[in-house]
Hints:
- Keywords: Exocytosis, Transport.
- It comes from Musa acuminata subsp. malaccensis (Wild banana).
- One of its GO terms (biological process) is exocytosis.
- Belongs to the EXO84 family.
- The protein has five domains: 31-104; 131-164 and 179-200, no CATH class; 202-337, no CATH class; 370-374 and 391-449 and 466-495 and 515-549; 555-715.
- The radius of gyration is 52 Å and the shape is elongated.
- By secondary structure, the chain is mainly alpha-helical.
- Helix 4 (132-145) runs parallel beside helix 6 (179-199), helix 8 packs antiparallel against helix 9 and helix 21 (642-662) packs antiparallel against helix 22 (667-685).
- The termini are far apart.
- The chain has 26 helices and no strands.
Amino acid sequence: MESSEDDDDFPTHEWITPQSSINSIYQSHTEKGIRKVCSELLELKDAVENLSGNMQSKYLAFLRLSEEVIEMEQELMELQKHVSAQGILVQDLMSGVCRELEVWNKCNSEEPDSEEELTEINRLLHNDLEDPKITFLDTIDVLLAEHKVEEALLAIITEESNSPELHDLEGNPSADGSSYRLAFLKKKEMLVDQIVRIAEQPYICTAELRKAVSGLAKLGKSSLALKLMLNAYDSRLQKNIEAFLPSCSIYSETYTAILSQLVFSTISVATKESTLIVGDMSTYMNRIVQWAEDEIESFVHLVKENSPSPETAAALRSASVCSQASLSHCSLLESQGLKFSKLIMVLLHPYIDEVLDMNFRRARRRIIDLTRNENVALMSSQLDSLLSVTTPSNIIFSSIGKKFMSIVEDILDKLTPMVVLHFGRTILSKLLQLFDKYVELLIKALPGPSEDDNLIEQRESEDYRAETDAEQLGLLGTAYTVALELLPMAVSKIITPQIENKEVGGGSSESISIVAVSSVEYKDWRRQLQHSLEKLRDHFCRQYVLTFIYSREGKARLDARMYLEGKGDDLFWDSDPLPSLPFQALFARLQQLASVAGDVLLGKEKIQKILLSRLTETVVMWLSEEQEFWDVFKDDSAQLQPLGLQQLILDMHFIVEIAVCGGYSSRNVHQLVSAVITRAIGAFSAKGIDPQSALPEDEWFVDAAKTAISKLMLGTSESEMSEPDEHMVVNSEISDSDESLSSPSIIESVDSFASANMGETDSPVYFTDPEA
């Protein structure tokens, strides 16, 4: 009442809901929810009760069935006793009849033959009742009907061994015989059919299968037992493979090892089981081998079907693992008389060959992109000690070398010993192709004409080019390190164990006969790497010398006209003769390059000497082969003087002393210089100049060249403290090495420039016309 009065005390508004209305609304919703939950609980209770009732009724029905089965068994036992009693009764009845017949016969005193008939009747009656053969056949029928295979098998084997009538059953089963023999054969076939049905069950366990096929073998059905055994193992193998195949995409690199384990372990177990059951396998070995070969062919087909894309690293690894695992399993099977190594390699060879080829193609594409800015980065610190970077300008080319080795190691790391064993030659050949592609990449990064067609290519835009001496030397140093150290070291890790295994006679005889790489072949591969490296070195030397010899306008600085009439701006002939200005410039240029090489190629003195020696040889080589240079001396208008010949010979001795002073002298330089001097003497002699009277002794030229070098070196050191003398300073055009070759005359001169491959520094070099 108070609440109603309170409500009356306050004015009501349409937009205000009274508390009583709110209570009534929410109370009604709550009651509805409770009622709904209660009804659902009641329904759930009824369902649980029904389920409990059904379970209880089914359990009671099961108990009733069990009791009925027990009662049925008791009734069967009673029936069996009753049948036995009836048999005894019939036997007693027959005995009584026989006795009555005997008494009747005596009483009637009939003729003698009636007694014989009675005896025959008695024999027949007793035989029908007590014949063990009929009893045995009935027993077999009962055992087969009750599926007591083991007891039936034992009974048939025992009867066959004890009965003389059945002794030759196995040797001549189709021979005519008694009705018992034919009945026995029929029962035996029934038992065989029942055992076959047991062995063909899809989910039969190993013990039951072994028991079944062993029974067939005891019955003389060894061929059928072997067939059922192999079919059963094949069925199990297929089920295991089908269960694993969905996981192949997850284990893309190792799925082949699991498949190999499944297949070859099944072959091994099936062979062992067959040997235990059949015994002597000489008759059935061909069938086992044929079955195993079919399984191996199916295995290889599955490997190819589920392989990743052939050009991926996962495909290479899976193929390598497949070869390794399969051949390892094959070696284990050899102890069982099964040799499948050749078969597995014949089947896998095309697949592995394709995967190797596709992966190396992918590697070549990666090498082509090495100079792209986004692809260049410093690799593992393991290579930093070998690919040392001493100047910032060489970081990029050192990184390219590391990237190249990273590409190579990505492939080599995926290979297994068995793949190296069988595909060693192919791997070395493809690695050589990769290095050739790497060399082509570095040649394109150098300025100058191409190695192949001697034409300046219309190059694609590249992010990095070796323009300065330091960059070019860094590029060469990196290439030398890769070719002579890193790449052989990486390859030797996988090749050397195979070579040593062959030399000591390790491994199976079949494996030794197919070792792919010998020590001689490995050394030859390393020599081919050096030949590829020489292409890069010779290209560098050629473009470097051509840049020195020719100005940007295409004019040759080594002009034979300066030797005519013994005078010219380039000649210095007084009490202290000096080489001509171009050869002074060459000396300064080589000194400068040697200084840069000492910084860039720190610790690689051998490479420094090889490069400087090649550069020296290349200058003399150009001089000996440049026909325009020698045509000047043949010109009828040319006036030759002894002083010009002396200057030319002094220049040649000066080149030799440059090499001797720098510590990179070689027999090639001496031979080339001797050839140039001989040719010069011949050219001047043709003009009427007597070399005997015009030339001093050879020792004079050697001493003059040594004195000139000492003077130039002293002048160079003094020039560091003062302004240099104009004769000691190389013209800015001559020392400019940053400009690329662009003059047509330079390109034409390449045709007459030696392009033959050079050997070691102490070996002779033969030059031929590149157009020949």
